[in-house]
Amino acid sequence: MGTQKIIITDHLHECLTEEIELLKPDKIFILTDSNTHEACYPLIKDHPLLGEANISTIPAGDENKSIQSLMFVWKSLSSFGASRKSLLINIGGGMISDLGAFAAATFKRGMRCINIPTTLLSMVDASLGGKTGINFNGLKNEVGAFYEANAVLINMQFLKTLDKQNNLSGYAEMLKHGLIFDVPNYQELLNFRFEKNADLNKLGILVQESIDVKKYYVNKDPHEQGVRKILNLGHTIGHAFESFAMHSKKPILHGYAVAWGLICELYIAHRQCNFPKEELKKLIDLIKDRYGIFEFTCKSYDKLYEYILHDKKNTKGSGIISIPLLKERGVVSLDETVDKDLIYESFDFFRDFMGI
Amino acid sequence: MGTQKIIITDHLHECLTEEIELLKPDKIFILTDSNTHEACYPLIKDHPLLGEANISTIPAGDENKSIQSLMFVWKSLSSFGASRKSLLINIGGGMISDLGAFAAATFKRGMRCINIPTTLLSMVDASLGGKTGINFNGLKNEVGAFYEANAVLINMQFLKTLDKQNNLSGYAEMLKHGLIFDVPNYQELLNFRFEKNADLNKLGILVQESIDVKKYYVNKDPHEQGVRKILNLGHTIGHAFESFAMHSKKPILHGYAVAWGLICELYIAHRQCNFPKEELKKLIDLIKDRYGIFEFTCKSYDKLYEYILHDKKNTKGSGIISIPLLKERGVVSLDETVDKDLIYESFDFFRDFMGI
Ligand SMILES: NC(=O)c1ccc[n+]([C@@H]2O[C@H](COP(=O)([O-])OP(=O)(O)OC[C@H]3O[C@@H](n4cnc5c(N)ncnc54)[C@H](O)[C@@H]3O)[C@@H](O)[C@H]2O)c1
Ligand SMILES: NC(=O)c1ccc[n+]([C@@H]2O[C@H](COP(=O)([O-])OP(=O)(O)OC[C@H]3O[C@@H](n4cnc5c(N)ncnc54)[C@H](O)[C@@H]3O)[C@@H](O)[C@H]2O)c1
Ligand SMILES: [Zn+2]
Ligand SMILES: [Zn+2]
């Protein structure tokens, strides 16, 4: 994100004007999903420079982050004469920015694009840092590229129409960022609540801090060869919960999975790296309070462990689970090797704590 | 190609061993087309490190540089558990290296790949320099990425089974390289003939020189923002001939189109930039001798001009034709604005000279 401009602004129109004047695109294209076309596109559709923009809309939902949607976007670009100097504006959550930026990365070997994230998750995570892609062959993000949007323009007003669950989903990544880096407003972050009329200005400050954390690690390691893996805190076990829930036909939002994954991974950190007990207690209480209960029985441990192995096999292939663990807030040990026993113990702890 | 290793070798097996030992892939995949599977794969199939490699083969022909083939390659990689550390070896001409390297560029956001070019065109051009892609929406290379193969391993023996037309197709790009840079063995290049039992060692020396020229310009401008456009010499009018022939259902090989395009563009250079007359004469005689005649009537000038405009519209949009022209051998003027009249005059010259 060295070259990636990320701007939180109350003046989206002016900001967009500036970026467009800077990029001087020969044509402008817009991508939305069906929901963001309804809820978000109206906020910019009267922009004078977008009068002739070509709009593509795909159905909402992560199952549409697919090769079919990608071909649909390529086709629109191609048929309406996009060039490498044209601009694609992605208006939506992570589904839209992942798909749209990947389309931009690969259209004529790379055209310009701007992300306008409209979910909290995409504001603090998905729309930044250059990971783009689609799901393929039943696997998440199996196909993609590293390609940074020329600019990311964030306007907190979009969150007004976002439901609480999706706000909480993004909040989980903010918690993660607050844990892997000593952010100034950590306490404010913990206290923030997504009530009706939540203070979006205050949230904007927390979002900025969260972005800075991601920026910091991405700049150090743009292609995820090493330290960027820190951003996967909570995700090893989180992904297992996500896959498990999906295969049980009770899918959960990504951020919920991460939040619950954090409980297990913080417990493991406590046992293996002396992550402080009081801090653990405070966090897991908060997560239970905000995200509620995730249920599974001890009969599912093997299945969950299998998902973890599958997630990790690509880098190791040996059955060794190596994940980033917190020693304390802001201090991460990158490649901790974790025993199967301790992982099972963390499941026990999780269920005990959830009272299931 | 700063980091791209390009090796011409008589010891393909040893070379491949070295590269594999360097890259330490967790799995190896091979991509061929139906012809190279027959004619080229046998030359390496007994390699001890390829015993467990997974082989994918797609039908030969540029119409298969398609999204369908791309999905087939992604699917093979995915289903057989490829990771970012796996290696894809592309064995074939430009069709295979463009497609295979694009698949590698986009599988899990980038896995390793090695090109083993088996046509002269891919040895001196297509397999080098990081341009990858597929045809889409009826347009050549509409979708793709810049992604350099980790290594390009060249063995001249592959050319033994390549037909004369395809050898001449590659030779046209070598002529182009010999024109845009003062290569030491220019005279040998002009004298080289693809007879039965042509001296492949001698050709190897000329291929090395040709590669060095491409390398030189690609390193200066990897993403084709400026000087790399020099490599398009002969291609503006060449592409028009290629499109024209294709739409007339008498498709011609890319290199033939380039060779014929060179005749017109050298004539224009002579008229506009004083490219020396004797040099022009020598070259067009040679091209006519090797590539024969390409026929069109003056009724087709407008159509040809339309193709040229379409090719260029992406950068200008104004109907102005701006192409690189030679002042003399090795001295290029990058952005010469050429009048419609002069282009039509070059068509006249071409037809006169061809005796049609
Ligand atoms: N590239 C990365 O680094 C990265 C990081 C994290 C997640 N991701 C990806 O992001 C995706 C998840 O992102 P997401 O959670 O934003 O999902 P999403 O884009 O699917 O959005 C969630 C839902 O909210 C709707 N929506 C979006 N903005 C709205 C608004 N302002 N008002 C009302 N409804 C709105 C959407 O239509 C959708 O139904 C996944 O595909 C994930 O893989 C990518
Ligand atoms: N990426 C670049 O910079 C670049 C540059 C130039 C061309 N290209 C692309 O390269 C492609 C053309 O490449 P090409 O001319 O190598 O075409 P190709 O790969 O289609 O090969 C031509 C024919 O020769 C056959 N063949 C290949 N090697 C053989 C061998 N050793 N013996 C017998 N038969 C063999 C192939 O099966 C095919 O039928 C086009 O798609 C073009 O767009 C790319
Ligand atoms: Zn996440
Ligand atoms: Zn060419």
Could you please describe the fold and organization of this structure?
2 copies of one chain form a homodimer. Chain A is an alpha/beta fold and 356 residues long. The first copy, chain A, folds into 2 domains: 5-161, Rossmann fold (3-Layer(aba) Sandwich); 225-354, Up-down Bundle (Dehydroquinate synthase-like, alpha domain). Helices cover 48% and strands 17% of the residues of chain A. Chain A contains 13 helices and 10 strands. The first copy, chain A, has helices at residues 12-23, 34-39, 67-79, 94-106, 120-126, 164-180, 186-191, 200-220, 235-247, 254-273, 277-291, 301-313, 340-354; strands at 5-8, 28-33, 54-58, 87-92, 112-117, 131-136, 139-146, 151-154, 321-328, 331-338. A 6-stranded parallel sheet of chain A has the order 1-8-5-4-2-3, sandwiched between helices. In chain A, strand 9 and strand 10 (331-338) form a beta hairpin. In chain A, helix 4 (94-106) crosses helix 5 (120-126) and helix 6 packs parallel to helix 10. The longest helix of chain A is centred in the middle third of the chain and has 21 residues, at 200-220. In chain A, 46% of the residues are buried. At the A-B interface, helix 3, strand 6 and strand 7 of A face helix 3, strand 6 and strand 7 of B. The site of one nicotinamide-adenine-dinucleotide has 30 residues of chain A, from helix 2, helix 4, helix 5, strand 7 and helix 6. One nicotinamide-adenine-dinucleotide (NAD) binds next to helix 2, helix 4, helix 5, strand 7 and helix 6 of chain B. Chains A, B: It holds the Pfam family DHQ_synthase. Chains A, B: Residues 57-166 form the 3-dehydroquinate synthase N-terminal domain. Chains A, B: It is found in: Cytoplasm.
